[in-house]
Amino acid sequence: MNLLKDLPAMDHMRSEQMTLVQLIIPVESAHGAISYLGDLGLLEFKDLNADKSPFQRTFVNQVKRCGEMSRKLRFFSDQISKAGLSSSSTPSGMQREMDLEELEIQLAEHEIELLEMNANSEKLSRTYNELLEFKFVLQKAGGFLVSAQSHVIAQEQELDENVYSTEDYVEDMSLLEQELKQAPSKQSGLRFISGIICSTKITRFERILFRATRGNMLFNQAPLDEYVIDPSSNEKVKRTVFVVFFSGEQAKSKVLKICEAFGANCYPVPEEINKQRQITREVLSRLSEFEATLDAGIRHRNKALTSIGYHLKEWTLLVKKEKAVYDTLNMLNFDVTKKCLVGEGWCPLFAKAQIQEVLQRATMDSNSQVGTIFQVMDAEESPPTYFRTNRFTHAFQEIVDAYGVARYQEANPGVYTVITFPFLFAVMFGDWGHGICLLLGSLILIIREKRLGSQKLGNFMEMAFGGRYVILLMALFSIYCGLIYNEFFSVPFHIFGHSAYRCRDLTCSDASRMGLIKYRGPYPFGVDPSWRGSRSELPFLNSLKMKMSILLGVVQMNLGIILSYFNGKFFGSSIDIRYQFVPQMIFLNSLFGYLALLIIIKWCTGSQADLYHVMIYMFLSPMDDLGENQLFWGQRPLQILLLLMAIVAVPWMLFPKPLILRKLHTERFQGRTYGILGTSELDFDSEPDSARSVRQHEDFNFSEVFVHQMIHSIEFVLGSVSNTASYLRLWALSLAHSELSTVFYEKVLVLSWGFDSIVIRIIGLGVFAFATAFILLMMESLSAFLHALRLHWVEFQNKFYQGDGHKFKPFSFAALANEED
Questions:
Q1: What are the recorded GO MF terms, alphabetically (predicted)?
Q2: Could you tell me the pLDDT band of residue 176, with boundaries at 50, 70 and 90?
Q3: Are 224 and 138 in contact (CB under 8 A)?
Q4: pLDDT tens string 622-678
Q5: The three-state (H, E, C) secondary structure of 335-363, written as one string
Q6: Are 362 and 13 in contact (CB under 8 A)?
Q7: Residue ranges per domain, the chain?
Q8: Helices 656-668 and 702-726 sit at what angle, rounded to 10 degrees?
Q9: CATH entry 3.30.70.120 includes domain 126-150+189-287
Q10: How many CB atoms are located within 10 Å of the residue 434 CB?
């Protein structure tokens, strides 16, 4: 125990030390002080007005103003996007300082100008589209009317030649026939209505007209060859020109009502050809005028939008900052004199000097006569957890935080995850050919990180880009493990020298049936390539990877228990060290640490002992002779001793801690009832600002503590078995990845390459590339990633990690740049 006490406390592997501070800021310098603190980004404010609604706070009007300006900026952004323009930021040297009032006036002017231009453009566009429809109606409907008139004229000529020209008919003709002959255009009450309608409605429109007029109508239609913008909806649709011939005023009113119901636009078309041509010329002239006017309006509007887009990002960031400042000011309280704002917050211990410096700068800039008071306070609640990370370690810390944020000053598993996570991934994914593919992908993301970091990526690409350094380490470790497994897309190579085995004959015909013979020293690094295709390949690799998985699992679980010792030492909990750390180490290593020792001894000695038999009969018949399964002298008494230690460790974990806690609680509160007869200023247990007093004042329930300890002990005992077995997933996934790669190589690539046809070879190569990219590189890597994640979250972190803290969220302007509204 003295040796363990001399170990360092691992302070550099814990979260930053935090302190609760109080700020008393004069009103005139409050805005500048909060702005400077936002630039610094190292102070998390506490909301002192949590009981008030947002509309009851002091700076609610300023927040509303910022919200209104944000709405205008979003309106400008939408207009720029609709116009197909891009918003470019102003160069840093040309940016001009602008206050909120000036920006508010400028935004209001730009909005009024844009709204007027949009209204004028909308009116002109509607008129232009109506004229365009009128032109199409004149073209199509005029053709109907000309053909109808020519048909009537032909009939009249036939009547004149055959009937009216005879003298007998002229003498016997009635007065009505004489009048109709003189005015043939008035011989019937035939009328027509022309217009344009959406092509999808034309069938129903015709059917309704037919029923409404009882069939007393003639319907002509002509679909347009191009899409036309509908003036009402401002959308491009397929349109059809129609002409309805009918008789009578009643039918006219019905037709007009039906046209209105179907959204058809009716346009007057004269019967005479000369008038049609005159109106067509006028429409074409007005269309050309409107086109010129619309083009000029679009150019003027785009020029205004370009000017706005030049400053849009700058204005948006300014408004976001101002809104964030006023939201933070709403978290502060006025003091009694109403001249100062009082705020509280958490900051790292190293940031105190920087915060005091920016507060002094804000006081000088505002010419305030009174400086800001900065003082440290005692805290009752647990401080937030803050780890300083960079772009390399951030993704690994996020992997840990996804399980749960570390308790304040708790040992951070993210430090070890940087190495252990990609290594365990590589144990399952070991293939240096696939590792090179992952390496190239990660290098592309890292080389282009500046460009990709400023773009809006999709969900998958954003996840891959955020974990680019995780992928980089996974690729490097995959190459390393692939060299150990000697697999390049499942193909072994003689990279580090010649094989230690050779065939029994020159033809090697019995290599897969009879096996190989060893004729020299072992292969220098990794698996000997001659194992590939031999009779004992699968049993050898199974045994190797399974034992290696158990060794890695025992080492990582021991690391987790050792970290629990450092936690107990740091928090001064000797009970946790003596009655959790020590029995857990004894139990785990008496069983599975001993198994790992047997594996190493068997590898070193080349013994043929059956380790399954040794471990099973260690429990069933510990007194029996081991026989040929004995690996070293004194193995049987050692097994008996380890078994007894494991049995003793279980009650050691279960009983002492609850009993000692009850004893401490009883001693602490003995005589507490007599303490209320007098007062003592030195009663430290009753200080409200002591974090320890909060736990001491809680009711101690021995049964609850005992049940909790019992659950924890049973979970550890059963978990030691299940967690060790869980590490066998390293063996299973590694074997599955290797065999799947072998299947794709032999049954797709090699098989297709056996044909003389170039087409079959290309198809085989394409299938192999597709299977490698989408199955082995994507699906298999995702599977190995998830299994490595589970091993860290469950098997490793549950040995020491509480994960019930809350993250440090400072007031920072840096986070606003990437934040969406």
A1: ATPase binding; proton-transporting ATPase activity, rotational mechanism
A2: very low
A3: no
A4: 888 888 888 888 888 999 999 999 999 999 999 999 999 888 888 877 655 444 444
A5: CCCCCEEEEEEEEEHHHHHHHHHHHHHHH
A6: no
A7: 12-45+334-384, 126-150+189-287, 392-670+702-799
A8: 150
A9: yes
A10: 25
